[in-house]
């Protein structure tokens, strides 16, 4: 069995275990997916320098395809995967923003996977993902489902329909949740 | 705010969406009159909603993160800068991660294109090394449809590649709305040109990976140039062998919309193969024919899915005038499963050419072959003017000498090793295909290619020559009776049965230009006879095996080749037996005496320039200055074909030859079903050995004879020696850290090398201990401290050169002859260290016992190179003539025949080799060579 197949079987098993409530499985799953997504994000960010940008949903799809290597996966597993992937995308991007902020202050080391990215020049716009992250943590206390919607839409870049499928809610609910959460986050960030 | 409050605010926010803005305060007041703070929150959120809909929150977070990076690369040089020998004039485009400049080559004054990698991308040492290594590999590609690479280096921190500047438009520009689509015959010609370029690259082990309209340019003269060959890989981020980056993300130009040209296997992260390029070319063909892409959609995800799962509509659905054969061609290139596509780009090119021919025949009155414009250029002719003789002579000496022009190289009969001999007359090719016995068949076909026609009355005959009028054939017939020999026959091209020329035995024969005599060769003999076979007499010849005799146009001299002691020399002798002299100096490799051009001014021959492939050369029969200066010679082909059996069309303006693409695939013997099946995906490999732990393999494979290492499943490939060395027989050190092999540069004796299995520089460990023949076949001792090797064998039967085994101590660098090993060669150290298995002469298996310093012969039958089982109890070998494989158990001396090799042809470079996989199953290499009759137009100077 080649390594891609091995990792897809392992991933499927972990998803199933997590589904049965095994918290260890989530931890291990996160490690695998995190490593993968972190790498993808770093490639993707480098691509952006040249003005080429891939949709993050494609990014997650790509990770998914690669990790599952075409193995048959039911939708429930796929939904779980997106959930995990979205959380991890958030973690990666926030870590990246934090590293960027550290460099700006002229101290600290970059995370290894991102060290190849040229961080020398000044950012044009400084919307701070760290602030979004903090606000989203607050939102999760107030309305966990809306926070999930934000995570899937904003961080993983899923379409409303995909978000609905992942969370098992209607498209209309996703639309309403997103609109409210978006407004709340915006107000919170610009307060 | 509590979750309850938040929920309440959410509801109000939601309800008020439907209320006009001006009425919202009143509506809110009505809904919750007692909670002014809540009301304020909702109003604030409604205000925020208006702005938020346009904010960064509507775009994926990764864009925000990416914006933290500088948007303009500052690390590229400005126009006007001089990098290396190139002064940059202007930026002409950006491809992938690099910028392309037009530039002036300051040394040669020519215009070039220079592709420059931004500085920060070239800081990692391993990437730089890879960049240069791959650039070298690409620059070795020599094909008219591949943009030439002149130089690759690093200067002032910039890594750059200088290449041919191509004038013209990209296919993307041609596909712009408003431009007409190419006609079918133009399109087919384009596709054939691209496929031809891909084929050459694939043969050299390079995959383009990024075939798309942007990467192909059409010059104003109709020539296509494929750009960025293999560069896709160069500009990838550094690879992590355990976690290869997904194709989609590392491909340069990773913009939405360009995944349309990627093959399904590339999308799912598998390594690109030649079939992936064929798929991309299929997409391109589809788009050029219909202006539509076979897999399209509004988002990458939709395209993704289409490439992976949706069969494309036939091109003719969009453009009904396309013939069904074109649909078939394109849809075959677009098969989802790589093995269902064209197997090689060469096959695709041939399919395009056939279709082009059929289409052209149908749409025009006469046969029209695509002619490259360059070969239409009027050929310069020179006249010596006698007035002002001295002045004219000076001018004549000073002017550039005329060069021959060769062009339109293309296969006219495609096949495999079954094509053995052919002859040509003014219009037709007569060739023989089949086994070397009575069952082979003769065919005739137009000199421009087409459908071959069987000549059933000439079954079992091999063509030697065709008469000037095209009516008669001089034929050979192989008889494997008590003494195998060749008879000579004369047959008709139209159907009457052939008749024997009694008494004449010959392996090759040719009619004299007047048709009244025959020159023939048979083993060490050269003779002439009358056309009816009578009056045969022998001519004086040097020692050796005489081949390819040919008449001078004035029928007074004969030229022939003589192979002796591994070298072939070319000779000339008068028909009267006088004036025997050597024409070409002999070399270690295969020089073939070749043929006079019909006018007698030139001479066509083959020469193995790098010791593997053979090129076609043209030489003046007499040098300039009335023969005082050395004759000039020109190379007409430049690899990767192995050319043999050249022939002129009687007018001298077209040349034919047999061209072989030698290749093989790895196979494993499945004893349960007695079948050879592809092993490790049919890897192009021979002389493969597994490491002790079974996790790694090392083998010899293309380009040329290179040494490779990879994981046992074929991934993690690493090329350890490059094609400049003709390398063989790699063997692992017991701990898997080193690999030893032997190799030679063309024309030089072979040496033993050791290289770390993780790559790095080669260490030459032998220095001529084997004498003029060099050193061969090293293998490690079980403690990894020593090597055993033999001296080269090429000449053993003739010169009586000594050969034997030597033990080389790696620490001291000293080599000691193994006493009593004289006459043994190709040694293999046993895994337990006690024995060395080797071949004796003639090829029998021997073992040398290191504990007693004695040797014994193990078999009475002939054998190829032996392989030890992992436990050292058994030896495997094949019979030496590729018919049977044997297992010999040492303790019991039991010899078992394991498999009949019938049905397994091995390529020439793999003869005699048997390997074992990790489970001790036999592995070998199956011949997948393509051998075709090629034709080429030639204008002699």
Write up this protein:
The complex is a heterodimer of chains A (191) and B (941). Chain A has eight helices and no strands. Chain A has helices at residues 3-19, 23-48, 56-68, 75-104, 129-142, 144-155, 160-167, 171-189. The model of chain A is unreliable at 1-6, 46-55 and 104-126 (pLDDT under 50). Chain B is an alpha+beta fold. Chain B has 17 helices and 57 strands. In chain B, strands 1-2-3-4-6-5 form a six-stranded antiparallel β-sheet, with helices on one face. A four-stranded antiparallel β-sheet of chain B has the order 10-57-32-31, with no helix packed on it. Chains A and B meet through helix 2, helix 3, helix 4, helix 5 and helix 6 of A and helix 1, helix 3, helix 4, helix 9 and helix 12 of B.
What features would you highlight for this structure?
heterodimer; A: 191 residues; mainly alpha; Arc Repressor Mutant, subunit A; 2 domains; globular; disordered N terminus; B: alpha+beta; 6-stranded antiparallel β-sheet; 4-stranded antiparallel β-sheet; 57 strands; 18% helix; 34% strand
Any idea what the radius of gyration of chain B is? 34 Å
What is the typical, i.e. mean, pLDDT of chain B? 80
Distance between the termini of chain A: 55 Å
User: Structural class per helix/strand content of chain B?
Assistant: alpha+beta
- Mean pLDDT rating of chain A: 66
- One letter per element, helices H and strands E, the order of chain A comes to HHHHHHHH
Q: What quaternary form is this?
A: heterodimer
Portion of residues in beta strands of chain B equals: 25-35%
Give the overall form of chain A.
Answer: globular
Largest interface: chains, residues each = A-B, 68 and 64 residues
Helix tally of chain B equals 17
Radius of gyration of chain A: 17 Å
Strand order of the largest sheet of chain B: 1-2-3-4-6-5
Helix segment tally of chain A: 8
Give unreliable regions of chain A as ranges.
1-6, 46-55, 104-126
Structural category of chain A is mainly alpha
Q: Globular, elongated, flat, extended or rod-shaped: what is the shape of chain B?
A: globular
Q: Give the termini separation of chain B.
A: 95 Å
Q: Give the percentage of residues in beta strands of chain A.
A: under 5%
Beta strand count of chain B: 57
The helix content of chain B is 10-25%
């Amino acid at each position: 069995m080649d390594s891609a197949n091995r990792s897809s079987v392992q991933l499927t098993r972990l998803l199933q275990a997590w589904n049965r409530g095994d918290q260890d499985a989530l931890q291990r799953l996160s490690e695998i997916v995190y490593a993968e997504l972190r790498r993808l994000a770093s490639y993707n960010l480098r691509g952006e320098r040249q003005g080429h940008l891939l949709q993050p949903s494609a990014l997650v799809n790509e990770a998914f395809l690669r990790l599952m290597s075409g193995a048959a996966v039911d939708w429930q597993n796929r939904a779980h995967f997106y959930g995990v992937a979205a959380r991890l995308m958030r973690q990666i991007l926030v870590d990246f923003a934090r590293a960027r902020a550290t460099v700006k202050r002229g101290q600290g080391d970059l995370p290894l996977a991102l060290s190849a990215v040229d961080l020398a020049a000044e950012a044009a716009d400084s919307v701070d993902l760290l602030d979004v992250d903090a606000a989203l943590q607050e939102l999760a206390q107030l309305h966990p489902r809306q926070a999930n919607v934000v995570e899937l839409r904003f961080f993983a870049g899923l379409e409303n329909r995909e978000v609905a499928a992942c969370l098992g809610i209607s498209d209309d609910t996703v639309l309403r949740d997103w609109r409210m959460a978006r407004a709340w986050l915006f107000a919170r960030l610009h307060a | 705010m509590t979750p309850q409050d938040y929920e309440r605010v959410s509801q109000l926010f939601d309800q008020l969406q439907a209320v006009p803005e001006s009425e919202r305060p009143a509506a809110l007041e009505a809904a919750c009159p007692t909670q002014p703070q809540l009301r304020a929150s909702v109003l604030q959120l409604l205000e925020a909603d208006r702005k938020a809909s346009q904010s960064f929150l509507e775009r994926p977070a990764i864009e925000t993160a990416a914006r933290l990076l500088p948007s303009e690369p500052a690390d590229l040089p400005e126009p006007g800068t001089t990098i290396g020998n190139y002064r940059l004039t202007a930026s002409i485009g950006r491809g992938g991660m690099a910028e392309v400049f037009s530039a002036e080559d300051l040394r040669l004054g020519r215009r070039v294109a220079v592709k420059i990698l931004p500085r920060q991308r070239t800081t990692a040492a391993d990437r730089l090394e890879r960049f240069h290594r791959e650039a070298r590999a690409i620059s070795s590609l020599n094909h008219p449809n591949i943009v030439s690479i002149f130089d690759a280096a690093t200067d002032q921190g910039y890594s750059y590649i200088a290449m041919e500047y191509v004038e013209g438009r990209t296919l993307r520009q041609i596909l712009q709305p408003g431009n007409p689509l190419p006609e079918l015959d133009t399109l087919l010609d384009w596709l054939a040109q691209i496929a031809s370029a891909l084929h050459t690259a694939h043969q050299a082990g390079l995959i383009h990976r990024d075939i798309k309209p942007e990467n192909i340019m059409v010059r104003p003269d109709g020539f296509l140039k494929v750009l960025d060959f293999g560069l896709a890989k160069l500009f990838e981020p550094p690879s992590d062998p355990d976690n290869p980056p997904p194709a989609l993300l590392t491909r340069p130009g990773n913009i939405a919309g360009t995944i349309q040209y990627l093959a399904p296997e590339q999308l799912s992260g598998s390594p690109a193969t030649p079939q992936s390029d064929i798929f991309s070319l299929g997409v391109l063909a589809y788009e050029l024919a219909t202006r539509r892409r076979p897999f399209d959609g509004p988002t990458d995800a939709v395209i993704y899915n289409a490439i992976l799962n949706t069969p494309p509509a036939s091109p003719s659905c969009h453009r009904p005038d396309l013939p069904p054969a074109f649909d078939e061609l394109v849809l075959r290139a677009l098969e989802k499963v790589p093995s269902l596509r064209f197997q090689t780009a060469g096959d695709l090119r041939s399919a395009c050419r056939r279709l082009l021919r059929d289409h052209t025949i149908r749409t025009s009155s006469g046969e029209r072959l695509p002619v490259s414009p360059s070969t239409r250029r009027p050929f310069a002719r020179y006249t010596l003017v006698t007035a002002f003789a001295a002045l004219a002579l000076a001018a004549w000496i000073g002017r550039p000498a005329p060069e021959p022009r060769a062009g339109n190289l293309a296969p006219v009969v495609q096949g495999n090793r079954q094509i053995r001999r052919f002859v040509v007359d003014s219009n037709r090719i007569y060739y023989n295909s089949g086994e070397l016995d009575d069952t082979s068949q003769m065919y005739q076909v137009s000199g421009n290619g087409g459908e071959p026609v069987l000549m059933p009355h000439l079954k079992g005959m091999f063509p030697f020559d065709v008469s000037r009028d095209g009516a008669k054939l001089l034929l050979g017939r192989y008889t494997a009776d008590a003494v195998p020999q060749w008879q000579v026959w004369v047959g008709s091209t139209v159907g009457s049965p052939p008749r024997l020329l009694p008494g004449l035995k010959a392996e090759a024969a040719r009619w004299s230009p007047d048709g009244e005599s025959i020159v023939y060769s048979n083993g060490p003999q050269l003779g002439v006879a009358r056309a009816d076979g009578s009056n045969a007499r022998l001519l004086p010849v040097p020692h050796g095996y005489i081949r390819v005799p040919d008449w001078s146009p004035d029928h007074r001299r004969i030229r022939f080749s003589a192979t002796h002691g591994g070298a072939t020399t070319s000779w000339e002798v008068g028909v009267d037996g006088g004036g025997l002299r050597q024409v070409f100096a002999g070399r270690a490799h295969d020089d073939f005496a070749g043929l006079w051009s019909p006018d007698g001014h030139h001479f066509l021959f083959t020469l193995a320039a790098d010791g593997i492939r053979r090129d076609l050369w043209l030489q003046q029969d007499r040098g300039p200055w009335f023969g005082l200066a050395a004759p000039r010679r020109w190379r007409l082909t430049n690899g990767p074909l192995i050319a043999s059996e050249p022939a002129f069309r009687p007018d001298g303006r077209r040349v034919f030859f047999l061209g072989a693409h030698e290749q093989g695939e790895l196979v494993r013997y499945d004893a349960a079903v007695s079948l050879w099946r592809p092993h490790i995906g049919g890897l192009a490999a021979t002389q493969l050995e597994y490491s002790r732990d079974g996790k790694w393999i090392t083998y010899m494979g293309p380009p040329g004879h290179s040494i490779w290492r990879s994981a046992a499943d074929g991934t993690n490939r690493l090329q350890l020696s490059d094609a400049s060395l003709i390398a063989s027989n790699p063997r692992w050190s017991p701990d898997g850290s080193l690999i030893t092999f032997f190799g030679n540069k063309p024309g030089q004796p072979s040496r033993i090398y050791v290289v770390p299995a993780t790559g790095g520089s080669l260490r030459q460990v032998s220095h001529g201990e084997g004498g003029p023949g060099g050193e061969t076949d090293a293998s490690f001792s079980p403690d990894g401290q020593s090597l055993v090797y033999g001296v080269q064998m090429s000449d053993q039967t003739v010169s009586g050169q000594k050969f034997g085994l030597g033990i080389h101590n790696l620490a001291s660098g000293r080599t000691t002859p193994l006493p009593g090993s004289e006459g043994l060669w190709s040694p293999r150290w046993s895994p337990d260290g006690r024995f060395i298995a080797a071949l004796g002469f003639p090829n029998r298996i021997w073992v040398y016992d290191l504990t007693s310093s004695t040797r014994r012969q193990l078999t009475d039958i002939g054998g190829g190179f032996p392989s030890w089982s992992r436990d050292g109890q058994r030896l495997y070998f094949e019979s030496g003539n590729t018919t049977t494989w044997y297992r010999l158990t040492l303790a019991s001396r039991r010899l078992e025949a394991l498999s009949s090799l019938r049905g397994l042809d091995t390529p020439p470079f793999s003869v005699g080799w048997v390997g074992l996989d990790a489970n001790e199953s036999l592995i070998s290499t199956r011949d997948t060579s393509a051998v075709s009759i090629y034709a080429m137009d030639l204008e002699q100077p």
